[in-house]
Design a protein that fits this description.
By secondary structure, this protein is mainly alpha-helical. The chain has one helix at 20-42. It has a domain at 18-46. Helix content is 50%, strand content 0%.
Length: 46
């Protein structure tokens, strides 16, 4: 059994990334990766 201090309150997300802020950070990171991939294609870098 998990210690009481580690238990989630009712309705809390399973992970921090399940929150809106985590989702926005993930989308921002994906946008950066897409930008770098586009620049790589422009420069013809595999």
């Amino acid at each position: 059994m998990a210690p009481a201090a580690r238990e989630r309150p009712e309705g809390a997300p399973d992970r921090v990334d399940d929150t809106r802020e985590g989702g926005m950070a993930r989308a921002r990171a994906r946008a950066h990766l897409d930008w770098f991939a586009a620049v790589g294609r422009l420069l013809d870098v595999p």
